[in-house]
Amino acid sequence: MGVSLAVGRTAISEAVAIAVRQQDSWDEERVRAMDAGMRFSVFTGLAAHRPLGNINRARKAPYRHSPTFRQRFDGCPIHEPGSER
Questions:
Q1: What residues contact 63, with CB distance under 8 A and at least 6 apart?
Q2: In the chain, what are the domain boundaries?
Q3: DSSP string covering 15-65, please?
Q4: Nearest-angstrom CA–CA distance, 67 and 40
Q5: 43 near 50, Cβ under 8 Å?
């Protein structure tokens, strides 16, 4: 149920511009701790959201091995994000 537009026949025009001030949601120390100690992977989410295709299958091994390397190199355990219940 998509809308089909004729390419080249429709002029592109700006409809709206939104300006938003930058927001600091966390302090710098917490951002560094999250970046250093958390592991985020598209392969550990919901099955419906997992990537498909050969390129993504090729990405799977590096995604799996990267946290182990980071943990050894940085000397800091890597944590998987989870939901609070």
A1: 41, 42, 43
A2: 49-85
A3: -----------S-HHHHHHHHHHB---GGGS-GGGS--SHHHHHHHHHHHH
A4: 9
A5: yes
Contact 56, 64 (CB under 8 A): no
Upper half-sphere CA count for residue 54 (Cβ side, 13 Å): 0
Q: Per residue of the chain (85 residues), what is the pLDDT tens digit?
A: 566 766 677 777 778 889 989 887 778 888 887 777 777 777 777 888 888 888 888 888 888 888 888 888 888 777 776 655 4
Contact partners, residue 44, CB within 8 Å, separation at least 6: 80
Residue 19, pLDDT score: 92
Residue 85, pLDDT score: 43
**Both tokens assigned to 46:** 């919901």
